[in-house]
Amino acid sequence: MDLAYVAGGTVLVAGEVKMTGSPPYLRRSYVQKERKTQSDLDKRLKEVKFTAVDLKLYHTPNEVIVKILSSDGDLLSATLPLWWDEWVKASIPGFYSFWASRLASGQLKNGKVVNADNPDLLLEKFDRLRKYNNAVGVFMFKEENDRYVPVEVENIKKAKSDDR
User: Fold this and answer.
1) Which comes out higher in pLDDT, residue 111 or 139?
2) Confidence of residue 116 (pLDDT cuts 50, 70, 90)
3) Angle at 49 between CA 91 and CA 15, to 5 degrees
4) Dihedral sign, CA of 105, 109, 113, 115?
5) How many angstroms separate the CA atoms of 139 and 136, rounded?
6) Sign of CA dihedral 46, 4, 37, 29
7) What SS3 state is found at 3?
8) In angstroms, rounded to a whole number, what is the distance separating the alpha carbons of residues 72 and 143?
């Protein structure tokens, strides 16, 4: 947990800040290739999910948990998404995650770019994290002409439609 606001001994707001992806760099006598944002993203997303849920469960009164269990009698019932979404929104602490993602540009092989990050896939994964966090912020950037530039959602959608 990187951020916390505590009042009266209770964590009211909490969050994590994550950086993903890295450029190629010189490591001793060889060049370490760039690391894609997608490389270990699933594991890192799970860590953030569990942190949020663990904190919220810790601060959820037992009576509320019993009420949820007794209303359906089964935590895995079809109404799980209904009470889950409400619980995530209403429970404390409010949990927020903030991500900065350097998108891998990949390499050119046989006229095609390979090993590049897929921004659409990344957005889908970050969007699913909202099922566990109160909000998720993402800033994606890439290298262009030896400098970093933001990747805009409109450009991601446009590039996807151009590929069709």
Assistant:
1) 139
2) confident
3) 65
4) negative
5) 10
6) negative
7) strand
8) 51
3-state helix, strand, coil in the chain (%, to 5): 40, 30, 25
Dig out the tokens for 149 from the structure.
Answer: 């530039």
| Domain boundaries defined on the chain | 3-163
- Tokens 């569990």 locate to 50
- Residue 10 is classified by DSSP as E
The pTM assigned to this predicted structure is: 0.79
CA distance 164 to 162: 5
Which of 145, 143, 146, 141 lies closest to 156 in space, CA to CA?
Answer: 141
Tens digit of pLDDT for each residue in 68-105?
666 555 555 545 567 788 899 999 999 999 999 999 98
Q: Whose CA is closest to 18, among 42, 38, 45, 39?
A: 45
Question: Token pair for residue 106?
Answer: 């990949």
